[in-house]
Amino acid sequence: MSNVRTATPQTARAINDRIALELLTEHGPLTAARLRELTGLSRPSVAELLGRLGRGGLVDVVGEAGAERRGPNARVYGLVAGRAHVAALDVRVEGVSLALADLAGATVASRSVPLTTAPDPAGHPGQHPMVTAVLTTLRAAGAEAGVAELHTVALGAPGLADPATGALRVSDALPAWHRQLVAALRDTVGAPVLLENEVNLAGIAEHRLGSVRDRDTFVLLWLGVGVGAAVVLDGALRRGASGGAGELGFLPVPGTGRLPSAVECEGGLHGLVSGAAVRALAERHGLRDDGAEGLAAERLVAGATARTDEAAGAFLDELAGRVALGAASAAAVLDPGCVVLGGEVGRAGGRALAERVERRLRELSPLDTEVRAATVGGNPVLGGALVTALGAARAELFATDR
């Protein structure tokens, strides 16, 4: 007996509706004729699905095509972007960045909330004032943008997001208000709150918007204040059993003089390529930066790539050798075929650093592994959070039976 199931008319309609909605999301407003070309559906089928999507509040007529003003196909149909809104948050030790976007992916509001420790009488007893500040800012941004309610919230934070519970695991290295914020959002926003590690979100952004849109398997190596990795295999983000896949900062490597421990990563790869380690390495090569400490590492790397002198070249070569240790470990275990250098330092190094890492990697590994520089601009963590939130919202709304 065959196990092949024939799609019911209802299932076929749902599939066609979702395809049309995804095309409108990708291409923007389209005529019915153009939808027929892209979907291969008949004229009656396209007319029916546009009617269903219109009644569902997902599609509306947004104009007319200039070349087809005399017939019914002159109408141009677009996604109703205001049908739903999502929020994205990038939670760091020093503050929170947030953005709101409509269903089409257009950002309608963005805010930054710097770390505050001042008491806030409006907050709940025992609630950190930072939590109150973020919730207040989120509500105010929504009100100013005319967002009545949120469909989905995606939040990126350092540390491990437990895939079983969806909670941020306790860590002495992170402030307690991070966990308070996750709980407060779930209690107050009235929408699903998706928690993800910040580096994983940067990997998602790079896959959807950046340098690896052509690949479904890669590792993003995050080089910033800290060190981590996002692992994407066959198009799926891999988090590991406890959410710790990609914690390369704890990877034991030569050159640190000691081993990492369960609670301290200085003896691991972190001790060689963290922001502090990059600054120390640059100083040893005679390169200095007199700016703010938190930005010094990326400025030093960017400055070195623009120079042609021996000191800058030697600095980049040694840094590439250190980064290649982490890339070689990822290649040996996962064979991803591509490693992306992300984070502030990875993006600052650009192609110059990526090429050096790739050359050194060829000496360390028999596997053919391309090394690319991350290209997503702005805040990649926030970008990945928006991609995640929009994906969840569209998956639900686009699959709704009408």
Describe the 3D structure.
This protein is of the alpha/beta class and 402 residues long. It is 44% helix and 18% strand. The strands form three sheets. A five-stranded mixed β-sheet has the order 6-5-4-7-8, sandwiched between helices. Strands 11-10-9-12-13 form a five-stranded mixed β-sheet, sandwiched between helices. α4 (129-145) crosses α5, α6 (198-209) crosses α12 (380-398) and α8 packs across α9. The chain starts with 8 loop residues before the first helix and ends with a helix. The mean pLDDT is 90.
Count, helices: 12
CATH class categorisation of the largest domain: Alpha Beta
Helical/strand content category: alpha/beta
Major sheet details? 5 strands, mixed
Secondary-structure element series: HEHHEEEEEHEHEHEEEHHHHEHEH
Question: What's the short version?
Answer:
This protein has twelve helices and 13 strands. The protein has helices at 9-27, 32-39, 43-55, 129-145, 176-188, 198-209, 270-273, 275-284, 293-305, 310-334, 343-364, 380-398, and strands spanning 30-31, 59-64, 75-79, 85-92, 95-102, 107-114, 152-157, 193-197, 218-223, 227-233, 236-238, 338-342, 370-373.
Question: Which features characterize this protein?
Answer:
13 strands, Nucleotidyltransferase, domain 5, ROK family protein, 5-stranded mixed β-sheet, 3 domains, WH_DNA-bd_sf, Arc Repressor Mutant, subunit A, 44% helix, globular, 402 residues, alpha/beta, ROK, WH-like_DNA-bd_sf
